[in-house]
From TrEMBL:
HAMAP family: 3MGH (MF_00527). Its EC number is 3.2.2.-. This is Putative 3-methyladenine DNA glycosylase. Keywords: DNA damage, DNA repair, Hydrolase. It is an enzyme of class 3 (hydrolase). It comes from the Bacteria. SUPFAM superfamilies: FMT C-terminal domain-like. The keyword DNA repair applies. It comes from Phytohabitans aurantiacus. Belongs to the DNA glycosylase MPG family.
Length: 206
DNA sequence: AGTAGGATAATCT
DNA sequence: GATTATCCTACTG
């Protein structure tokens, strides 16, 4: 139970290094209430281990505290004054690495997801980290909950394994530095993968 | 098609 | 007081 074809449980994958964990999360199913999404795009963040783009890079704060705990928990943060985004905590306790869930395809509960996202096509329902959370109804109440048990949000292994040859990687989206690290992973050719956009610097307000 | 700018509030220095 | 792991709308070609 809970073991994929390779014989590795999901929790063991999440407990290991962040890059294999990120790849392994592709194709996984994320359920919240009656809506289920198949993950198609993720990004790895290495915490304090020399990753300036991570929220945990400058050390532990009340907001990022859950990232320093054991793997398999949800790190949910609020950004730009209106959006929620969700990470899965990885690595051993004490190491603040995590994987940002960037996009997915709605495979169940699509009518409920549609009702939460107005005037958009189905492909865009969970295309982008904030849209994904919105489609699933994820907010601050999910912060710190365990994803591999009977919580409000549940993560389960892929229904069918994702062939490694269909996984591509590239630079992360929306971050200022560290463009040399191809730590964004996605399923090649999937229409729900968000287009690459470089971070747009904001001009100083007049 | 692609890009530019505004919305809007918690978090950190 | 500055910054932000974004999304949406409106504009240009």
């Amino acid at each position: 139970m809970g073991r994929s074809a390779g014989g590795t449980a999901l929790i063991d994958l999440l407990a290991g290094p962040v890059l294999p964990a990120a790849r392994g999360l592709l194709g996984c199913l994320l359920s919240a209430g009656d809506v289920t999404v198949r993950l198609t795009e993720v990004e790895a963040y290495a915490g304090t281990a020399g990753d300036p783009a991570s929220h945990a890079h400058r050390g532990r704060t009340p907001r990022n505290a859950v990232m320093f705990g054991p793997p398999g928990y949800a790190y949910v943060y609020f950004t730009y004054g209106m959006h929620w985004c969700m990470n899965v905590v990885t690595g051993p306790e004490g190491e603040a690495s995590a994987v940002l869930l960037r996009a997915g395809a709605v495979v169940s509960g699509i009518e409920l997801a549609r009702s939460r996202r107005r005037s958009t096509v189905d492909r865009d329902l969970a295309r982008g980290p904030a849209r994904l959370c919105s489609a699933l109804g994820i907010d601050r109440t999910v912060y710190g909950t365990y994803l591999l048990g009977d919580g409000p949000v549940r993560l389960s292994p892929p229904a069918s394994p994702v062939p490694p040859s269909t996984v591509e990687s590239g630079p992360r989206v929306g971050v200022n530095g560290a463009h040399d690290r191809p730590w964004r992973f996605w399923i090649a050719g999937d229409p729900t993968v968000s287009p690459y956009r470089r971070h747009t610097p904001r001009r100083p307000t007049p």
